[in-house]
Structure formats: C-alpha cells, structure tokens
Amino acid sequence: MTAQPDIRAFFDPDTFTVSYVVSDPATKRAAIIDSVMDLDMASGRLSSTSADAIIAFVREAGLTVDWILETHVHADHVSAAPYLKAELGGKTAIGFNVSKVQGVFAELFGAESQFRRDGSQFDHLLQDEERFSIGGIEARAIWTPGHTPACMVYLIGDAGFVGDTLFMPDFGTARCDFPGGDARQLYRSIQKILALPAKTRLFMCHDYKAPGRDEYVWETTVGAERENIHLAGVSEEDFIKMRTERDATLAVPRLLLPSVQLNMRAGEKPPAEDNGLAYLKLPLDAL
User: Fold this and answer.
1) Do the beta carbons of residue 104 and residue 179 sit within 8 Å?
2) CA-angle at 127, arms to 121 and 131, nearest 5°
3) Is the dihedral of CA 244, 246, 248, 252 positive or negative?
4) Which of 89, 148, 158, 211 is packed most tightly, with the most Cβ within 10 A?
5) CA distances in angstroms from 146 to 16, 152, 219, 284, listed in the order given
6) Closest Cα partner for 257 from 229, 217, 222, 284?
7) Residue 46 and residue 38 in contact, taking contact as beta carbons nearer than 8 Å
C-alpha cells in the first residue's frame, strides 16, 4: 500500500496560491511546497504573514523540515524559501531545467553580470524521475514542462503536487504563453500525470473558483482530472489549438515582473546598490 503523508494546506487569497506542508506522521520529517512571501506593490515592502503561519504550524506540530520545494519559477507570487530556510532549516530545491528560465529572464531584466544562470542559488536541482524521501515516505520528481521549461510534479507517497500544470477539473490547465512555454509539451506532460493510479491525490498550486463554484478547492484525484474540461475527449492537436487561442486572451499576471525577478534567485533580493537598497526593474514595452 502506498504511504499516505499528512498534508496541511495554506491558502493565500491575495495571489490565490496554495502552499503545503507535507509530512511523514511516523518520523515527523516534512517538506514545504510553493511557499508565499507577501508583497505590497504600492510600497515595495515584503512581509512574512503567510510564511509565519507555516512556521507556527511546523513548530506546533513538532516537525523537522528537510525540503523547501518549488514546483517552478512562479510568476504570480514571491517565494518565501529563504525566510523559511533561515527559520526552519531544510534544503531548497527546484527542477533541473531552471537554468533555461534564468537565462531568459536574466536577459529581460538586465540582470547583473554576476548573476548565475546555472540554478546554483538553490541547494539542489531535482532531475526527472529523481527519487528522494520525506522521512520514511518515498518521493519522486517528475519533469512536466509546458507551462514553463522547469515545471516539476512532486509525487510524495499517494499525493502529487502539480504546481500550475493542472487546475481543478472544472477549471482547466496551465497557460503556455510565458517564455519557454509550449502547449504540445504541456499536453504530453499532463499525460504523465494522468497515467498515475486513478486514486492518486492531486494538489493544485492555485484555485480561482470555476464558474458556478462558490468555494476555493485545491484537492482532487487523477481519476477526476481525466475528466478535466480542457482534456476529456480532446486530442493533442485540439488541445494545442484551444490553449493557443485561449492564452492570447489572457492578461499578464499582476505580480509577474516582481515575482520572477526574485524567484529566479530562489526568492532572494537582487544585490543592493551603492545606497544599500535592492531594486526591481520594470521593463517598458517588453511584454
């Protein structure tokens, strides 16, 4: 029987992001997935209310954090990974292909010449099909490019954490119009997820309430996702056509420009300038 981790979700209504603490009940070892650092764009101030809720839970539950995982370089919220690592320990990790994302965005934002484009800001780069563990529970990283070139799904026991690759079955699938996105790749990546056992629990990184639904939800199953409104009875070519046309109508995410600049650095700020302050850039007429 596949091990069943304990899972605690933390929903951030400002960015519609769901972060997770995933733990082995036998050993109390844990991973944190897709954390949020709060950002007030009007003031340019970062704060830790969302991350502090995770810290309080981890300490109250007596957990030891081994991993702080990112499913991808997020374009809609800032990662709290550095803050959580300083408070709780653990190794930061992301998919091996993050270097491609860093290369694209380093050019867009005119990153300093010292900025490393090899993923070394993270403690560990997970390879496709790499095995690791949360206490006594086996985990596996599954490369699922399409939304971005570096997207990973983390299968921990009987639970998969899919990032932005999939949304709830009544909402659909990820956009593919960011740099390095590819609708054909996304379709094929999703097939890897749908090939998992039907009872596998799946946990979303976001929920936006599908039309007609009154509550935010973020847990489903592989079996339910096989009936996803973007996938059920849809061929690969039809999916590509739908995704391409739909993406052309979508607005740029509200926090894309600040989020990517920080997240490509594993959540760290850019180097401070001569006045001691760190700055984010706003490229004009670029997107």
Assistant:
1) yes
2) 115
3) negative
4) 148
5) 21, 10, 21, 26
6) 284
7) yes
102: DSSP letter: H
Predicted confidence (pLDDT) per residue in 73-112, tens digit: 999 999 999 999 999 999 999 999 999 999 999 999 999 9
Listed in sequence order, the residues at least 6 apart from 275 whose beta carbon sits closer than 8 Å to its beta carbon are: none
Query: How many Cα neighbours within 13 Å face the side chain of 189?
Result: 30
Q: Please write the tens of the pLDDT for every residue from 15-49.
A: 999 999 999 999 999 999 999 999 999 999 999 99
Distance between CA atoms of 271 and 127, rounded to whole angstroms?
29
8 A C-beta contact, residue 148 and residue 182: no
Query: Which 3 state secondary structure label does DSSP give 22?
Result: strand
In order, the DSSP letters of 177-234 are: -STT--HHHHHHHHHHHHTS-TT-EEE-SB----TT--S---EEEHHHHTT-TTTTT-
Q: Give the contacts of 114 (CB within 8 A, at least 6 positions apart).
A: 271
Contacts of residue 59, Cβ cutoff 8 Å, sequence gap at least 6: none
- In terms of phi and psi (left: phi > 0; alpha: psi -120 to 50; beta: otherwise), the region of 43 is alpha
For residue 3, pLDDT over 90 is answered with no
